[in-house]
Structures are given as structure tokens and as C-alpha cells.
Automatic annotation (TrEMBL):
GO molecular-function terms, A-Z: 3-hydroxypropionyl-CoA synthetase activity; acetate-CoA ligase activity; AMP binding; ATP binding
Domain of life: Archaea
Domain (Acetyl-coenzyme A synthetase N-terminal) ranges: 30-82
Pfam families xref list: ACAS_N, AMP-binding, AMP-binding_C
Protein name per UniProt: Acetate--CoA ligase
Protein family membership: Belongs to the ATP-dependent AMP-binding enzyme family.
NCBIfam families, sorted: Ac_CoA_lig_AcsA, PRK00174.1
PANTHER family: ACETYL-COENZYME A SYNTHETASE, ACETYL-COENZYME A SYNTHETASE 1
Organism: Methanofollis fontis
Length: 630
């Protein structure tokens, strides 16, 4: 890992022509960062003070390593800040959500007042089904306004939501329902993807077998004739809305009450349920939306993620709504009916801030410039990226073709665990292609060696956060040991699990994961989860998976499989295995290559050494193999 890394990639510095008055309102980075360093608590208190609290906090921060509390004894409800605050005043008729379906013309618009009312009604519907503060609700939905309504309704009454991305399969959903002990599942009959229906409810039916915590399933029925609901367990979304009262006061939440659980891939065993709390998360999501994205009154903001990922939680729902923005969401995929559809959406709705992933940018590069050129993208003023490294080629293309060489490109580094943006280049600051940038004001980050000493510029090391921040995760659900690991591996710092390198100006280039996580098209996959899916197939005795470079998806999954006696390698079996993984975890986890092998490299303690497989695959030095079993 350590050693010199070529930072020449970043030699080019891009300074976008700043349009008048549109640099970041934080001011220049040096001044804003110094202001934060002088008084970190004062800095965050000032941000929190821009929001409304039912009861002020006693202390900004309480840090008993590795456990933090922020805005101690403060009381709030995040939906009050996302909805009531705007719905009651001059903003009531401002558009909160614009939804665009797969078909052109398939649209829905909700003002702040309308969204507020929908949320209150669904909150009452949940209450009518016996959901209360502290109960867990699992949301497994397509990207429709009701998905966001369901999230906010949970937050309204203090229920903890656990959103599972609609692209996950039955066994992934099942594991998440069980771990979180979800009482209610909110789902839809179908989602639409490339003109085809994805039968979500059927997947739920399979996932709830052996999930005794589940009391009810609420189903949004989008197709006609309506899908039949069978047991008493199942209730119709519209019916329970119709039966519910319109007004629901916000539950008074302590700043440290949990807001949601979101599962992210772990390196071993089951996915980790990352727990975020109400107060600190709200402040972090609001601050970064307002000041990193630099939202203005007339912005139309579009983040292409799904609310099922942290990017959607923080930058479709909680952050932008707390900032009072107009948020565009869409069920469309980037290449259907053709690769011009997203650019037409930008033109049609006058999108000003656009936030997407490197995998999408690389896909558009492949389709060619002619597609974006067919639409006017002049409305854009800030474009962002998240999920994996934005390589310099992709940066240049994004900056020139999409941003018209006039928009800041914000390559934002952060994680499910961090809850909010941590490292990026603020609007108006010089950008370096290949580098995410410097820690934002409010965040203390560094690149260090295994002992925690800062490494020299140009030398690779571990990316760490050296001080707590408001939106940091508070726990890994039911697994304190794993939570503690984050803060105890390197010198008491928070270790992100990423490798990085810094340059002389303190700009950080993120190189990729240091552990067994594969990022496919921006989605985190734990090797363990894919391996256990493979092993659940009758023909498989043992499996190991690694990430291999993929021009489009960043990384792709390659699987090494040992067959059980009596099963012979064949092309047919390969496709069966791919299909099997698809059904159990979802399309993102599908191996793009499978190799049948006789044995796997293991340590003496029996751990599969994936880095040896990877080194073989890439023709590189596997590093220290002293623990390798013969
Ligand atoms: C990677 C997504 C390079 C990184 C918000 C991190 C990035 C993991 C970037 C978290 C970026 C995210 N540059 N790598 N701008 N953003 N990553 O939890 O490896 O889904 O640890 O959160 O994605 O993924 P997660």
C-alpha cells in the first residue's frame, strides 16, 4: 500500500470563471477553514442555530472516545425543519419535489405545503397501524414521491426507517429486515426500469418468510388492475392514507434519538446497520447542502441517486429539504429510451445543480458528446460527483461537456458512516482533476501511516478523520465491536477504509478501498455477501470474489469457485451462478467473470487471501505472503 504514488495526474489546476456573486458563501477555503479550526464548537453551533429547535442544546459536543453526542439535550424534529419551517411561511407554494416517471409527461409536482400534508397523513396512517417512536419501518420502494413521504413520515413520529434499495433481491432484503427487526414494510407492487416492471411485492413476499418481527406490509399499487392483496397482513397505501387524519404534530425528539438505520456492506458476514441520530445528522446534511452545494432560492437541484443509498438520504431528502430547495427526482435510468434522456430532463426543468456518480459519467463518455449536445445545459451552475474516484479523464469530460467549462465540479468524498460530505473542493476554489480536494470547513481529515503519522505529500496512506463531526454515525446496529473498530484501528482516529494521497497544497486524492469492499457502479458490495450468495448454490463448495477494473463500472465482480463433488464446470453452470447471485442480492452483484478453480489461497487461519487472487489477476506483486498456507 505505502510507497510513492504518482500525483502528477493532478498537476492541472482548473479555475472556473466565477459568475458574479456565486463563489461559495463560506468565503475562501483558507479563511473559512481557519475560522472552524479556531473554534470548532462555535462553528457548528452557528450552523445549528440556522435551524429551528424545540429546546436549545446545553453543550455542542460531548466526546468520550469513540462515542460522541452532539447538541446535547437539544430537542427537535427534522421534518419540522424540512417541512413546517417552509410550509408555513412565504415558501408554502414553492415546489419541494418534482418527480419524473419513465414516460415523458409522466410527472408529479408537490409544493412544500402539499408534501407537508402528505407526510402528516402518512405519519398518521403509520400510527393507526400501531407504529410509534422507536419502532423500525423498512421501506423497499421504487423512486417515487411516496418513498420520500414514507421516510419523512417515519421521522415525523420518531420511528426509525431502514431503507433498502429497490434493486436488492430477496435474501438481501430478508437479512436487513431481520437485523433491524422491522415491524412494518412499505413497498410498491412494481417499479419501472427500462420500460419493464420489477415486481417488488413478489420479492417482499419471499423476504418476509421467517421474519417474525413484520406485522404489516403497506403496498402502493401502481398498476391497473390492482394487484390483489391477500392476507390481513397487507394493506393498501391509498386506503390507509384515506383513513388517516390530515394533521400530525411532529414528535419531540432528543438530538441523540436514532433517525434511521442504513445498511452498508461490511468486509465480513452480514451488512452493517449504520445508525444516524436526529440532531447532528440534520445539522451536517443541512450545512453541506446549503453551503457546499451553495443552494440559492431559485435552484432546481437534481441528485441522480436513489433514496435507498446514503446519497439519497442526505442529498435528495434531508439536506436539500432542510435548505428549502426544489428537488427533482426521477425513476428514469440514464440510457432509456436513449442516452439523451437525462440531458432533456435538465433542459426541461432548468436544473441548476446536478449531482451524479463517476460510473454514470463514464457511461455518457462512451455514448459520446452528441447526446448532451442535443439539449441546452445552460441552466447548470454547479455539478457534483460521488461514490468513487472521479478519474481525471472523466473530470475533464464532465467539466467541459456537461458543465460547459463554466461550472465548478464538486468531487465529494464521504461515506454512509460520515453522513455528510467530508472532502471536496468548494465552489470558486481551484480544482485539481483526480483530487477530491481538501476537508471542508467543519471537518478534520488527514492521510497517515499505520501508526497515525501524517505521510509526506505524494506518499500513499490511510485516509482518516481526526476529530468527531456532527453527522458521524453513532453506532453499528447491534454491533458495538464493529463500531469501535472504526475509531481504534489507527491512533484513535476514524479510519475510513480508503487509501489516499495528499499533495503539497493539502488536496487529497482518494485511491480506493483498503479492504474487502468492491465498488461496482458506485454501489458498495461486501465480498462476503457475494460469496455467501454463491455458496448457497448447490453446486458450490467454496467461493472467493474480487473486484477487477472495469472501464465503465469502475470495478466489476470476478468470482473464483470451487465446485462440489459431482458437479462439473460448464458455461451453463456459470450462467446459472450469475443468475443465482442476481436473484439473491440483485443485479449490481452479478459476477462479470467466473473461474472454476481447484483451491483458493488461504492464510493458515483459513482466511481467503483475496489480495493474492487479485495480484494474480492483475499480474502484480501480491506483497507479503508469509501467512499463506502451502
Ligand atoms: C467511495 C457513498 C473516491 C469510498 C457516499 C468510500 C469515493 C465509499 C468518493 C463510501 C469520492 C465515495 N472519491 N471515492 N468522491 N465518494 N467514495 O458508504 O471508497 O456508499 O469509502 O457512501 O465510496 O461509499 P458509501
Amino acid at each position: 500500500m505505502d510507497g510513492n504514488v504518482d500525483v502528477k495526474r493532478g498537476e492541472r489546476v482548473v479555475r472556473p470563471p466565477p459568475s458574479p456573486g456565486e463563489g461559495s458563501r463560506l468565503g475562501d477555503w483558507e479563511t473559512a477553514y481557519a475560522r472552524y479550526r479556531e473554534d470548532p464548537e462555535g462553528f457548528w453551533a452557528a450552523v445549528a442555530g440556522e435551524l429551528e429547535w424545540f429546546r436549545p442544546w446545553d453543550r455542542v459536543r460531548e466526546w468520550r472516545h469513540p462515542y460522541a453526542r452532539w447538541f446535547v439535550n437539544g430537542a427537535l424534529n427534522i421534518t419540522h425543519n424540512c417541512l413546517d419551517r417552509h410550509a408555513s411561511g412565504d415558501h408554502r407554494n414553492k415546489v419541494a419535489l418534482i418527480w419524473r416517471g419513465e414516460e415523458e409527461g409522466d410527472e408529479q409536482v408537490l409544493t412544500y405545503r402539499q408534501l407537508h400534508r402528505e407526510v402528516m397523513r402518512f405519519a398518521n396512517a403509520l400510527k393507526n397501524l400501531g407504529v410509534g417512536k422507536g419502532d423500525t419501518v423498512c421501506i423497499y420502494m421504487p423512486l417515487v414521491p411516496e418513498q420520500i413521504v414514507a421516510m419523512l413520515a417515519c421521522a415525523r413520529i420518531g420511528a426509525v426507517h431502514s431503507i433498502v434499495f429497490g434493486g436488492f433481491g430477496a435474501s438481501a432484503l430478508h437479512a436487513r429486515i431481520r437485523d433491524a427487526k422491522a415491524k412494518i414494510i412499505v413497498t410498491a407492487d412494481v417499479g419501472y426500469r427500462r420500460g419493464k416492471r420489477v415486481a417488488l411485492k413478489t420479492i417482499v413476499d419471499e423476504a418476509v418468510v421467517n421474519a417474525p418481527s413484520v406485522e404489516r406490509i403497506i403496498v402502493l399499487r401502481r398498476t391497473r388492475p390492482e394487484l390483489e392483496l391477500y392476507s390481513e397482513l397487507e394493506v393498501d397505501y391509498e386506503e390507509c392514507m384515506a383513513a388517516a387524519d390530515a394533521f400530525c404534530p411532529p414528535e419531540v425528539m432528543d438530538a441523540e434519538d436514532p433517525l434511521f438505520i442504513l445498511y452498508t456492506s461490511g468486509t465480513t458476514g452480514t451488512p452493517k446497520g449504520i445508525v444516524h441520530t436526529c440532531g447532528g445528522y440534520m445539522v451536517g446534511a443541512y450545512y453541506t447542502s446549503q453551503y457546499v452545494f451553495d443552494m440559492r432560492e431559485n435552484d432546481v437541484y437534481w441528485c441522480t441517486a436513489d433514496p435507498g443509498w446514503i446519497t439519497g438520504h442526505s442529498y435528495i431528502v434531508y439536506g436539500p429539504l432542510a435548505a428549502g430547495a426544489t428537488v427533482l427526482i426521477t425513476e428514469t435510468v440514464p440510457d432509456h429510451p436513449d442516452p439523451g434522456v437525462w440531458w432533456r430532463i435538465i433542459e426541461d426543468f432548468g436544473v441548476t445543480i446536478f449531482y451524479t456518480a463517476p460510473t454514470a459519467i463514464r457511461m455518457f463518455m462512451k455514448f459520446g458528446e452528441e447526446w448532451p449536445k442535443r439539449s441546452s445545459l445552460d441552466s447548470l451552475r454547479l455539478i457534483g460527483s460521488v461514490g468513487e474516484p472521479l478519474n481525471p479523464e472523466a473530470f475533464e469530460w464532465y467539466y467541459r461537456v456537461i458543465g460547459g467549462s463554466a461550472c465548478p465540479v464538486l468531487d465529494t468524498w464521504w461515506q454512509t458512516e460520515t453522513g455528510m460530505h467530508m472532502i471536496t473542493t468548494l465552489a470558486g476554489e481551484p480544482m485539481k482533476p483526480g483530487f477530491a480536494g481538501r476537508p471542508i470547513p467543519g471537518v478534520a481529515a488527514d492521510v497517515v501511516d499505520r501508526e497515525g503519522n501524517p505521510v509526506q505529500p505524494g506518499v500513499g496512506g490511510l485516509l482518516v478523520i481526526t476529530e468527531p463531526w456532527p453527522a458521524m454515525m453513532r453506532a453499528v446496529h447491534n454491533n458495538d465491536e464493529r463500531y469501535r473498530q472504526y475509531w481504534t484501528t489507527v491512533n484513535g482516529y476514524y479510519t475510513a477504509g480508503d487509501l489516499a494521497v495528499k499533495d503539497e497544497d493539502g488536496y487529497i486524492m482518494v485511491l480506493g478501498r483498503a479492504d474487502d469492499i468492491i465498488i461496482v457502479a458506485g454501489h458498495n458490495l461486501g465480498t462476503a455477501e457475494v460469496e455467501s450468495a454463491l455458496v448457497s448454490h448447490e453446486a458450490v463448495a467454496e467461493a472467493a470474489v474480487i473486484g477487477i477494473p472495469d472501464a465503465l463500472k469502475g470495478q466489476a465482480v470476478k468470482a473464483f469457485v470451487i465446485l462440489r463433488l459431482g458437479h462439473a464446470p460448464s458455461e451453463k453452470l456459470k450462467s446459472d451462478l450469475v443468475y443465482h447471485v442476481r436473484m439473491s442480492i440483485g443485479p449490481i452483484a452479478m459476477p462479470s467473470a467466473i473461474e472454476f478453480v481447484e483451491s483458493l489461497p488461504k492464510t493458515r487461519s483459513g482466511k481467503i487471501m483475496r489480495r493474492v487472487l487479485k495480484a494474480q489477476e492483475m499480474g502484480i506483486d501480491p506483497g507479503d505472503i508469509s501467512t499463506l498456507e502451502e
